[in-house]
Each structure stands twice: as C-alpha cells, then as structure tokens.
Amino acid sequence: MVFPVVFLKLADWVLYQLLANSCYRAARKVRNYGFFLRNQTPRSSSQQQAASLFPSASHCDVSNNIRSSQTLVCDIHGVLLTAKTFFPYFMLLAFEAGGILRAFLLLLSCSFLWVLDYELKLRVMIFISFCGLRKKDIESVGRAVLPKFYLENLNLQAYEVWSKTSSRVVFTSIPRVMVEGFLKEYMAVDDVVGTELHTVGNRFTGLLSSSGLLVKHKALKAYFGDKKPDVGLGSSSLHDHHFISLCKEAYVVYKEDGRNNQSCLMPRDKYPKPLIFHDGRLAFLPTPFATLCMFLWLPFGIVLAIFRILVGICLPYRLAIFWGSLSGVQLTFQGCFPSSNSEQKKGVLYVCTHRTLLDPVFLSTALCKPLTAVTYSLSKMSEIIAPIKTVRLTRDRKQDGETMQKLLSEGDLVVCPEGTTCREPYLLRFSSLFAELADEIVPVAMNAHVSMFYGTTASGLKWLDPIFFLMNPRPSYHVQILGKVPPEFTCAGGRSSFEVANYIQRKLADALGFECTTFTRRDKYLMLAGNEGIVRENKRN
C-alpha cells in the first residue's frame, strides 16, 4: 500500500514542480552562472551590502553575564555546521540506512542537482534518501552515525555564542529526524523545529508532510508569537537575514571566516560532549567527489580484501607480512618479545585493547607465532577466515574461566577484556576475569587506522567487519607490547582482580594516549543499536 501512494503523489509533484518551475529556474541559473560571468560582480556586491547589515558572530560579546538568561535561535545548516552543503549527510543516511544502491542513486542525482534551486534540490535529496525506509532505521542513523560527522564540522565561533545562552531553539529546513537526536544529545537544545516528512505506517514515503518545507521566519513567528528571541544567528544568505531580523540581536556566521581560518573548526577537546561511541561503515565525509572515489575503488577494494585474506591464511608469517605490506597493509611493531618462564606450565596471557576483530590476528602475525583468541561474539564467516584458533565464550563467568584455564594450559592466549570494540581514543571498562587466571600477563596496546571503511559495526552485518577493514586502501595496525605485569601487581602478589584490571587498563591507555572510561559493552549497544549486544542462538528441539 505504501508504493502506490508514493508514486501517485510523486507524479503530481513532478508534473508541477519539475515541468512548470524547474526548466525556467535551470535556464536562468545557466544563463547567470554559465555564460554571463560578468553579471556575478554586481550580484555579489549587493549580497555583501545586505550581509553588512548584521555584525559577524565574532563580534558578539560572549563575556556578558546577561547571556546566561537569554534565548538563542539559529539553523544547523550554514550556522552551527561549517559544511557548505548538506549533501554528505544525506549520503550518510542513504548509505547506512538504505544501502549501497540507494547511495549510488543519490550520487547520480548530482548530475542535475546543480541546476535546481535550494528547495527543489532538498526535495530530491529527501526523496532519494528516505523513500521506503523504516522510521527506526532513520532514527538509528541519526543517533549513532551522524553525530560524529556533525561534531567534526561544528563551527567553534557559532558554538561560543550558543554555549553562553540558557535557552536554544533550532529552526531548519532540514528534516527534523536527521538533526534532532544530535542536537538534543550533544548540544542541549530545548527544541528543534524542522521539516516534517510524510509517512505511511512505519515507513517514510520520501515526500514532505502537508506543512511542506519549513520556512524559518514564518516558523519563528508561529513559535514565539509576539515575543522576540534575544539572539539570532544566521548565515550570509538573504533568507537568513529575514529570519534573524526578527530577533533583538542578530549576528551572521560568514563563510569567509571558516574558509580562511581552520581554527573555526571545533577541536575534539572542546566537544560539547565526548564522542565515545558511533556506528556506520563510512570513515570519511562523503562529499560528491569523495563518494565517487569510493565507488570507483569498490571493485579493486573487494579483490584486494580477498587477496589479503588469502595471504593471511595460506602464507607463513614472514611472507604474509611481506606480501601484506606490498598490498598496502601497514603493520608497525614496538616493544620486545616476551620471554616465557620454563617453570610455568601455563602459557602467556596477552591482554589487548580491542579495535577490530583482527586484533589477535595482527598480534599473532607480529609475534610470528600461533595464538588462541577468545571472544564473546564471532560470526561463522570470521571463524572460517581466521588464520588462528578462536574460541567463543558464553558470558557465564564460571564456565568461561574454566575454558580459559584449559586454553592457557595448552599455550598462549589472547583476550580483549573490554568485550567490544571502540573506535575513538577511549578504553572501556576491563573485565576482571582474566586477572584471576594467570600470573604471566603481558599487556598489548593495539590501535588501527582506516581511511575509507570502518571494520566494526554495532547494528550491521558483523561477518563483513574483517572484509570492510581489509578493503581500505592502506589500513594500518600498531602493535606495542608492554613489559610483563610485575608480580606485585598481580593477584599472586596480593592484588584483587579488579585492581589488576584497572592497573592494566591505565597502562594501556597511557601507552596509546587514550582515556579510561567505565563504559561497558552493554552501554555501547544500548546507545548505538538499542539492545544489549547479546546474540541469542535459537535452540532447536
């Protein structure tokens, strides 16, 4: 029932919008920008004259204590974010929630988006990105994927004004569902007024609701009535000038300031809230050019990933390192090989930070020796392609302890006590179980870097994690083996298992320059996927 309604409305919209309006708009745009370049000078000067009516946001007095009781209104696009276009965020939504084919369709739309005006361009991107997708999938991307890219493009100049006010309301023509999660979770916004989308059941049709595309100055009047907001932040566009002119004070965030001064970007240490967890496969901001490069790389990336997997499975360690480096995999090793105690009947327990599922594989390769890895969740595909022995744990503390004791009696063992991966420079809370099992504990600081695809996911297909990591042009792994934990800091030296776990967590964090947290696997999955991250196997009678 969804698609007949969608296509009927789309047909009516196309006939009116595209045929009646777009041809004229496109012709005028081509004439103004393509052939008569001489007409740009007076037009730009008139815009500059209009923009000079309002002072720059840098001139706003943020030291004034009265700001703490004032209300601020602004838009996220062009004000809070430094990005020139919202296309990358629609691409993230299309790729992560809709898949690679939808993302490719959105990329193809760039061939004609440039001739459309702002409103029609936004309608087309909304339709391609949203049509047929479930509400919960869109909300998941807005909560778990987009905030990372929003924070990386946050305008420091605008945020300094934003942070000094007590009440904040965002008015935007961007779909509310794309920005509300980020603004409420990270920016402490009081309310978000954005474009509402039409839905049928639990799916988006890709069309706007009956209220249409949000007009900011009209929405502001409807929201505040006769009362004027204290501070308004806008971009240099004429539409925003009408919007912020309804405020008692008005300031403009000029594009020239951000383009000429990289310090306008928000540094990580000044984020409104630390970014610890995020999801999604894309590790870059998918601008049209960057997305085109990704699609051109995909065929080569798939072949390269298969080659790298075969190298890891079939070749000896030295040859695997050689051919892996030739294919672009960078493996750096730091530290010394731990010496085994001949008096000990047990193997060495390697305690690693957890960046991807390939942590034990790269450690085994760096040491040039076979290891056994234990993990809480591992797909059948990952087990098949793993060049080392892998054993699943059950989350039953007693049973898992017995399993690990048995494995240690057979040889060296690798454990990642965080229980799940973390992409950012933070370490999750360490489980203390490993500290009770061995006295020869070797901490290993591991870190991975990618440029195109993340090799981890909370809500996607986990069996693709190693493949996506190896599809990167030049993935890198850093392996740093620290010295054995001194006997006085082990359980045999009188320390509790919790003290040992916290001590090793701090040592690894210091080695990597990371920050320790008390977050757990459960916290990560509740935030990103809405579940506790436990895969329950169906029992057949």
UniProtKB/TrEMBL annotation:
InterPro entries: HAD_RAM2/GPAT1-8, Plipid/glycerol_acylTrfase. It is found in: Membrane. The chain crosses the membrane at residues 89-116, 289-311. GO terms for cellular component: membrane. Keywords: Acyltransferase, Lipid biosynthesis, Lipid metabolism, Membrane, Phospholipid biosynthesis, Phospholipid metabolism, Signal, Transferase, Transmembrane, Transmembrane helix. Pfam families: Acyltransferase, HAD_RAM2_N. Coiled coil: none annotated. One of its GO terms (molecular function) is phosphatase activity. GO terms for biological process: cutin biosynthetic process; phospholipid biosynthetic process. Residues 348-449 form the Phospholipid/glycerol acyltransferase domain. It comes from the Eukaryota. Residues 1-20 form the signal peptide. It is a multi-pass membrane protein. Belongs to the GPAT/DAPAT family. This is Phospholipid/glycerol acyltransferase domain-containing protein. It comes from Gossypium schwendimanii. The lineage of its organism: Eukaryota, Viridiplantae, Streptophyta, Embryophyta, Tracheophyta.
